[in-house]
Write a structure and sequence with these properties.
- Keywords: Glycoprotein, Golgi apparatus, Membrane, Multifunctional enzyme, Signal-anchor, Transmembrane, Transmembrane helix.
- This is LARGE xylosyl- and glucuronyltransferase 1.
- By secondary structure, this protein is of the alpha/beta class.
- It contains 23 helices and 23 strands.
- The strands form five sheets. The protein has a nine-stranded mixed β-sheet. The protein has a seven-stranded mixed β-sheet with strand order 3-2-1-4-7-6-8, sandwiched between helices.
- α15 links the parallel β12 and β13.
- The chain is elongated, with a radius of gyration of 36 Å.
- It starts with a helix and ends in a 5-residue tail after the last strand.
- About 16% of the residues have low confidence.
Length: 742
């Protein structure tokens, strides 16, 4: 028995040895391929360890990340410079050999990146995605019409300019209003490497006016359908955007998606994130035909050259005509027709990941487009509620939008490194002129101010004006800054005629003004007030530039040049119109002086007649304007004569005269070299009185600027001496005085 047990024991040991030796060998060979991770520390040990090494680890991590990014940028540059001879590298072919995959196999677009990564991972070689060339121009088309859309599109443009690294070419399809506003804005914005072209939307109306449209965008909501015909024939691709879009990334990333188009794909769109095209929103809801959920046209990638070859114009027209026979009208403008075409021709569509158009309208699936808000690319405020839309991350979206809304647009005038801008003669001449100024001149800053180009947004709010038929209409002209905003309502109550105002504001203050105006019943009830925003830049208040901006956009034959602190008497508007006929101001060169008074009281019963005004003058509650500070300013008005006058009388110009006058619209502008306070109106009145002279001899009697105690008017005085020393032989403009009705 003992011998038998020993034999069995030997057999058992041998069996165990045969089993463990391979296992130990495998374990030994596998140790080299695994990293031994330390056991987690206790909470106290972990906290003390992190407190000691956190700063060093963070710095080293930042350095490593920076080094990796630099290596990646260098690698991308090298790859982009490498010649591509393989036919598979064509921008319109499948880089991974999967050329037979159609639209239905691409899914919802949310996992497009994951699919691409999986395909790349199965290949032995590394395929780099096509990159946008550093200086390649990106073309963007936007349909914009009206005052409000022209204001809203600026936020979109700011978000694009903020992130961009490439030259941009904006193609605006506009009505006459938007073209006037945006052309002036971009001309004064002077952003390097940005080109802007305009296309008259009114000429395109006949192309789409036959389509009944219930959408609030009106006929302009159908203009995207005719872009292949509108945009230049040599333009091959373009990104089309709605005005209510905000970019959270470089638009070049979206431009690079064109390289992913395959076969006959010509349209890049994001799936619609609402249930609209599913037809189950309410009883008898009958939307236009669409592929699945349909597609949203707030962001479109168009391959224009291929669309033209496919006869896109004929394609969408035939589809629209057929569907309108049963649908009668569109509900979502061009989006309905785009979807009907795609339903019939699904091969046309390249579905974009939904983070390229996160649609923030109520009851959408937008929250499924991203795991974190940092993943977002493009935000689309496509609900009429705009910022009041419902979304669990709406605060983040709203803050992002407000950031660009109030962002200082002057900061976007930055050059693109390594991408020389096209020659701009205006910019070149400006730089040449500035280089000729003497920086050691004590008046250098004042002289430089006259060449500052202030970004200007005309007609910031809706404007309506119906010209009068008798050519006597008068516009009140004034300028103001944020601290005089409270005067607007009072002026609108006193003056029922058209008003042209230039406001000197920052981007943030412009939005405060917008909220103030939209919350005022008085201002919102007036459509004939033109608000023109001149954005702040530099250290001086460009008072005469502001006056000129307001004067240039007067639409009436005459204008009353006032200041924002003055309230016109009730009925002055109609009185001045009658004076135009009485003094025959349409054919004669005359300026009608309106006397100015002031009060030191905060609350005052406004005089309703001349008799009541004279009574307040006698009681000391009113004074002739600045009689105790600057008597010369209004002395030629001859207030003693005015007290008894019943008809207009002629007054003679005298030095330092600065009245408030009504003149013809073609009168000379103010000299913009005057900034801040002092002499700005004096010089203008002198020019009104003297510029039409048959013969003028100038005597140069200048005051030199000393190195201390400089003021803007001293420098302007020295800069243009003829204004203050003209010897007049004959006048062709006369000054007349308004006596005010009794």
């Amino acid at each position: 028995m003992l011998g038998m047990w020993r034999g069995r024991r030997k057999l058992l040991v041998a069996s165990l040895a045969l089993l463990f030796i391979p296992a130990l060998t495998w374990l030994y060979l596998s140790v080299g391929s695994f990293q031994v991770k330390p056991l987690p520390l206790s909470p106290l040990e972990a906290q003390s360890s992190m407190a000691v090494g956190r700063r060093g680890e963070q710095k080293s991590l930042e350095l490593r990340v920076r080094a990796v990014e630099e290596e990646n940028h260098a690698l991308r540059r090298d790859l982009s410079r490498t010649p591509r001879s393989s036919p598979a590298r064509h921008p319109n072919s499948d880089h991974h050999g999967n050329q037979t995959r159609n639209h239905s196999e691409e899914g919802t677009g949310d996992n497009e990146g994951q699919k691409s990564a999986a395909v790349v991972g199965n290949r032995s070689d590394c395929v780099q995605q096509p990159m946008v060339d550093k200086c390649e121009t990106i073309h963007v088309a936007i349909v914009c019409a009206g005052y409000n859309a022209s204001r809203d599109v600026v936020t979109l443009v700011k978000s694009v300019l903020f992130h961009r690294r490439n030259p941009l070419h904006f193609h605006f399809i506009t009505d006459s209003i938007a073209q006037q506003i945006l052309s002036s804005l971009f001309h004064t914005w002077m952003v390097p490497a940005v080109k802007v072209d305009f296309y008259d939307a009114d000429e395109l109306k006949s192309e789409v006016s036959w389509i009944p449209n219930k959408h609030y965008s009106g006929i302009y909501g159908l203009m995207k359908l005719v872009l292949t015909k509108t945009l230049p024939s040599d333009l091959q691709r373009v990104i089309v955007l709605d005005t209510d879009i905000t970019f959270a990334t470089d638009i070049a990333e979206l431009w690079a998606v064109f390289h992913k188009f395959k076969g006959q794909q010509v349209l890049g769109l994001v799936e619609n994130q609402s249930d609209w095209y599913l037809g189950n929103l309410w009883k008898n809801h009958r939307p236009w035909p669409a592929l699945g959920r349909g597609f949203n046209t707030g962001v479109i990638l168009l391959l224009l050259d291929r669309l033209r070859k496919l006869r896109w114009e004929q394609m969408w027209r035939l589809t629209a005509e057929r569907e309108l026979m049963s649908m009668l009208s569109t509900s979502l403008a061009d989006q309905d027709i785009f979807n009907a075409v795609i339903k019939q021709n699904p091969f046309l569509i390249h579905q974009l990941p939904c983070f390229w158009n996160v649609q923030l309208s109520d009851h959408t699936r937008s929250e499924k487009c991203y795991k974190d808000v940092s993943d977002l690319k493009v935000i689309h405020w496509n609900s009429p509620k705009k910022l009041r839309v419902k979304n669990k991350h709406v605060e983040f979206f709203r803050n992002l939008y407000l950031t660009f809304l109030e962002y200082d647009g002057n900061l976007l005038r930055r050059e693109l490194f390594g991408c020389p801008s096209e020659a701009d003669h205006n910019s070149e001449n400006l730089q040449k002129t500035l280089s000729q100024l003497d920086e050691d001149d004590p008046c250098y800053e004042f002289r430089r101010e006259r060449f500052t180009v202030h970004r200007t947004h005309l007609y910031f709010l809706h404007y309506e004006y119906e010209p009068s038929t008798d050519n006597t209409d008068v516009t009140l002209v004034a300028q103001l800054s944020m601290d005089r905003l409270q005067m607007l309502e009072a002026i609108c109550k006193h003056w029922e005629g058209p008003i042209s105002l230039a406001l000197y504001l920052s981007d943030a203050e412009a939005q405060q003004f917008l909220r103030y105006a939209q919350g005022s019943e008085v201002l919102m009830s007036r459509g004939n007030v033109g608000y023109h925003i001149v954005y702040k830049e530099g250290q001086f208040y460009p008072v005469n530039l502001l006056r000129n901006v307001a004067m240039r956009h007067v639409n009436t034959p005459f204008m009353f040049l006032s200041d924002i602190d003055f309230l016109p008497m009730y009925g002055l508007y109609e009185y001045l119109r009658k004076s135009v006929l009485q003094l025959d101001m349409t054919s004669a060169k005359k300026a009608l002086v309106v006397p100015a008074f002031e009060t030191l009281r905060y609350r005052l019963s406004y005089p309703k007649s001349k008799a009541e005004l004279l009574s307040q003058l006698d009681m000391g509650t009113l004074f002739t304007f600045r009689y105790h500070v600057w008597t010369k300013g209004h002395a030629p008005t001859n207030f003693a004569k005015w007290r008894t006058a019943t008809t207009p009388y002629r007054v003679q110009w005298e030095a330092d005269f600065e009245p408030y006058v009504m003149v013809r619209r073609d009168s000379p502008e103010y000299d913009r070299r005057f900034v801040g306070f002092g002499w700005n109106k004096v010089a203008h009145i002198m020019e009104l009185d003297a510029q039409m002279l048959l013969w003028v001899e100038y005597a140069h009697n200048t005051l030199p600027c000393s190195s201390t105690g400089l003021s803007p008017f001293q420098c302007a005085y020295d800069y243009k001496p003829p204004l203050f020393s003209a010897l007049k032989r004959e006048r062709s403009m006369t000054l007349w005085f308004c006596p005010m009705p009794t």
